[in-house]
Amino acid sequence: MTSLLEVSGATVRKGERALLEDVSLRVAPGDFVAVVGPNGAGKTTLMRVALGLQRPDAGRVTVNGRDVGALSPRERAAFLAWLPQRVQVSEPITALEHVAAARYRFKESHRRSEESALVALARVQAEALASRPITELSGGEQQRVAVAALLAQEAPLVLLDEPANFLDPAQQLELYALVGQMWRSGLGVLCITHDINVLAHAMRAGSEGRIRVLGLSKGRVAFESHYDAPDLGEHLGRVFSVRMRGVEVENRRVFVGMSLERGE
Ligand SMILES: Nc1ncnc2c1ncn2[C@@H]1O[C@H](COP(=O)(O)OP(=O)(O)OP(=O)(O)O)[C@@H](O)[C@H]1O
């Protein structure tokens, strides 16, 4: 399948420093690409570059074959939907209005947008939140509404920037289970996280090998692998400067970090 999103040799500099150096990746519908790396590795910079919010100093980003910078917001919204760490809404609009607004690229009546928004809210079991002001929802409820907005946008690729960062374990699990459903329904997922274990909630036994993992360190690609690769723990350990071991828990592979000293 063609890669709808292609980042080729992206480099971002701030003064003498390279925040991103020659990073490439491709995401097609049905792909799941996880970008992992420690704080400051350049993950969010890569996300901003992929979304066209930051122009790389070198390299290129294309969406459906066109330079991302040449796309209007409406055109870009037809291909890429973005789930940030936290919903940024200062106006007390309702959850329904928020989700309906994600359909702005469609030329349709307000009523039609709201009908589609209700369907999207129902898909994430959040119909009961429809008339609640979004500013009054808990972090987990807001992220569920944000996932409904992603669905309502009907874009073939979703970009997630550590969307579970502020959520408790139960809410994290729920959010990534939803992401897994979206992936299985055929969407392409580019997911940035410093905690690889959240991905275990998105996959089903047997699908680990389909999750590509790109490790970033100091702005560079440190490794490219798959979730089921035997040496993934070693790769992760190297970029996070710990020892990492993959262990099976209830048929899922998770990674446990241990200090370097105790192993030596
Ligand atoms: N506008 C900026 N000016 C200068 N340095 C910046 C700017 N934005 C980011 N940086 C630096 O670039 C590096 C990469 O930042 P980035 O936010 O992409 O990392 P990250 O991997 O997403 O980190 P985290 O996991 O902490 O969110 C960091 O060292 C950061 O301090």
CATH domain fold name of the largest domain:
Rossmann fold
H-E string = EEEHEEHEHHHEHEEEHEEH
Number of strands: 12
Q: What about the largest sheet?
A: 6 strands, mixed
The backbone outline, from C-alpha atoms, is globular
Bound molecules: adenosine-5'-triphosphate
List unreliable stretches of 5+ residues: none
Separation of the first and last Cα atoms = 46 Å
Report the CATH superfamily of the largest domain: P-loop containing nucleotide triphosphate hydrolases
Count of discrete alpha- or pi-helical segments spanning 4 or more residues: 8
- Rg to the nearest angstrom? 19 Å
Percent helix among the residues?
25-40%
Query: Mean pLDDT, rounded to whole units?
Result: 91
* CATH structural architecture of the largest domain: 3-Layer(aba) Sandwich
What structural class do the secondary elements suggest?
alpha/beta
What does this 3D model show about the protein?
By secondary structure, the chain is α/β, with parallel strands linked by helices. The chain starts with a strand and ends with a helix. β1 (5-14) and β2 (17-27) form a beta hairpin. α4 packs across α5. The mean pLDDT is 91. It contains eight helices and twelve strands. The protein is 30% helix and 29% strand. The site of adenosine-5'-triphosphate has 11 residues, from α1. One of its GO terms (molecular function) is ATP binding.
